[in-house]
Amino acid sequence: MRRFAGIESGWFLVVAPVRGFILVSAAAILLAACSFTEDALWPSLTGEAPSGSGEQVMIPASEAELRDEAVYGDASSQPITRAFYEPESALMASSPTGTFVGAKVAQQRSELENLKASVNNRRIQFEQVRNTARQNSQSYFATIAAVTARLRIGTTPGNPVLVSQWNAAQSELDRILTDIAALNTLGNQVAADSAMSSYLLDSVRATFGLQGAVDEDHRQLSLIEDEVNRNVVLIDRLLSMLRETIGRYTNYVNAERRNLSTLALAIKNGEYLGPSLANRNQDYSSGSVRTAAIEPQSLVEERRALVVIRFDRANVEFRQALYTAISTALEHRPQTTFDLVAVAPNLGSPADVALATNASKRHAETVLQALGEMGLPSNRVTLSSTTSPGVQTNEVHIYVR
Questions:
Q1: What is the C-alpha to C-alpha distance for residues 144 and 152, in angstroms, rounded to an integer?
Q2: Fewest C-beta atoms under 10 Å: which of 74, 134, 234, 314?
Q3: Closest Cα to residue 85, out of 226, 236, 228?
Q4: Rounded distance, CA 244 to CA 329, Å?
Q5: Based on the number of CB atoms within 10 Å of its own CB, is 170 exposed (0-12), middle (13-18) or buried (19 or more)?
Q6: Residue 380 clears pLDDT 80, i.e. is over it
Q7: Where in the chain is the domain with CATH 3.30.1330.60?
Q8: What is the CATH class of 281-400?
Q9: 56 or 253: whose pLDDT is higher?
Q10: Residue 22: φ, ψ to 5°
Q11: Quick one: which of 50, 190, 203, 221 has its CA closest to 121?
Q12: Which residues pair with 388 in a beta bridge?
């Protein structure tokens, strides 16, 4: 039998005479396959339907592919990779080597297990305390929302129901303070774990330099070092979350304490004012009331007052209008300071002027107290008094500095 080899379109053809017939089966099959592939992949440019039946042909995986699937699907066939990604099993499966370094490895392995258990417990405690603080915050806001809604639609001054709800809200805010204290304690414990991880990492690295170790000792030391580094990452992440959560809740509680003071004033007067003025600026410091930097007489005669409150009758309702004016000024310029001037009419005898001056000072102190209850720090207000022939009754003027 004779065999001829030639090249046709990149394919090797084998032609063999069998019983007087020439079989070119391989060439016919391969050329047909090429024709099918071109027709199936390239669309017709004449608008006709592509050739071929469009039936999907399922090609079974080869033996090599099956072998590859078995290799990648069975993790047990790669013990080195498994040991690298799951060092816990490798650490537990180790046996004593009988060397001095092996004894150090066993001690460090025990310390590592204690560290891991501690970090896991801290993480669980953090989630529990944070969930408790979240629930307390939700209860607090529900109570405050009920009080605010009642005040907005109107109620009687000093409503005992609102007073009881205000007391409940204060208790709920105190529970959040307890949660913050628990988070601070937990932060100290996590910091101790961080110090322990640093010590253990230094100890493991120092053990590498000891003499008398076998290869298994160094392999175990490498695994311990990797696991300590992973716990260092977990500890740093937990410390960051604790720091952020403590700061957020501390600012939240401080702001809500100021809001509670303003809300107490609103319950006392039976009308809603708004959030604390202290929460509208960045200066939360407190101090004594300052004296005016400008002569009060010049302020009254030359400047236009932001607010003028005339005490021409008993029980003057000025708090809502005062709050709105001060709040608007702080929104435009958060670091604004104010001059509060008690103005008495300069009319009548000297005794009448003296009585009017004393009365105007008492009214100014009432306004100053209201500003403090609204949350405005006292060191943002200057207090002074003067007389003016242009007023007919006691007045309190507030100027923007």
A1: 12
A2: 314
A3: 226
A4: 32
A5: middle
A6: yes
A7: 281-400
A8: alpha beta
A9: 253
A10: -105, 120
A11: 190
A12: 345
- The percentage of residues in the chain with a pLDDT greater than 70, rounded to a whole number, is 72
Residues of the chain with CATH 1.20.1050: 100-269
Give the pLDDT confidence score for residue 60 in this predicted structure: 57
> 232 Cβ partners below 8 Å, 6+ apart?
194, 197, 198, 201
CA-based nearest residue to 381, from 339, 341, 334: 339
Q: What burial letters (b/e) apply to 342-379, b meaning 16+ CB within 10 Å?
A: bbbbeeeeeeeeeebbeebbebbeebbebbbbbbbbbe
Element (H, E) at 295: none
CATH of 100-269, one of 1.20.1050, 3.40.50, 3.30.360, 2.40.160: 1.20.1050
- The letter for the amino acid at 25 is S
What's the CA gap between 56 and 231, in Å, rounded?
A: 52
Structure tokens at 338: 């104010």
* Ranges of H-type helices in 42-99: 63-73, 79-85, 87-93
SS3 (DSSP) at 14: strand
The residue whose two tokens read 């708004």 is 274
Q: Is 22 helix (H, G, I), strand (E, B) or coil?
A: strand
If you search the block for the tokens 């007073």, which residue do you land on? 163
Residues 230, 215: Cα–Cα separation, whole Å = 23
Tokens of 95: 């046996």
Give every CB contact of residue 400 below 8 A, 6+ residues apart in sequence.
306, 329, 336, 337, 338, 339
The first and second tokens of residue 230, run together, are 């992973």
SS3 142: helix
Q: How many residues does the chain have?
A: 401
Measured CA to CA, the distance from residue 218 to residue 375 in angstroms comes to: 64
Is pLDDT above 90 for 171?
Answer: yes
- Helix H or strand E encompassing 17: strand 11-18
